[in-house]
Amino acid sequence: MNMHSDTKQPYLLYMHIASLLCWAFDVITTFYVISHLGVAVELNPLGWPFGAWGALMFYIPALVFTYLLLFRMEHKYSTWAATFITAIAVGFGIMNFLAGLHNIEVASLYA
Questions:
Q1: Of 72, 79, 94, 98, which is least surrounded by CB within 10 A?
Q2: Does residue 107 have a pLDDT over 70?
Q3: Is the Cβ–Cβ distance between 63 and 79 less than 8 Å?
Q4: Furthest-apart CA pair in the chain: how many Å?
Q5: Which helix (H) or strand (E) holds 33?
Q6: Residue-wise over 91-102: b if at least 16 C-beta within 10 A, else e?
Q7: How far apart are alpha carbons 57 and 71 in whole angstroms?
């Protein structure tokens, strides 16, 4: 049985895309609250624009590496490693989504 023909494996990539969308939601709401309303500050030590790029520098390589593990490497534990990387990305995505919701809450108080 070929482990790489499983139909559930593309869902790991879809979960990465969902994490990227949560990151984009956080970036858009952060831009609105900081740059447009001017009522919040970025807590990341890198500052507002560089903090967003720092997160993207995790998401893109994680997505590419998961793709390579699932569809290009024929190792016994490739699926497990891809699942672990996806779990980390989904955790970061949840944190980004919650930060975006907090930005909306701040915007609703000051807008």
A1: 72
A2: yes
A3: no
A4: 58
A5: none
A6: ebbeebbebbee
A7: 22
Sketch the domain layout of the chain as residue ranges.
16-110
Q: Which two tokens stand for residue 106?
A: 């701040």
Which two tokens mark 5?
């023909």
Q: Which pLDDT does position 1 carry in this prediction?
A: 42
Q: What mean pLDDT comes out for the span 81-94?
A: 95
Q: What is the pLDDT of residue 7?
A: 56
Cα distance between residue 31 and residue 94, in whole Å: 19
- Asked whether the beta carbons of 100 and 26 are under 8 A apart, the reply is yes
Calpha distance 85→80 (Å, rounded):
9
**Radius of gyration of the CA atoms of the chain, in A:** 17
Provide the token pair at 40.
Answer: 């919040």
Looking at per-residue pLDDT, the higher value among 96 and 5 belongs to 96
Rounded Cα distance, 28 and 63, in Å: 21
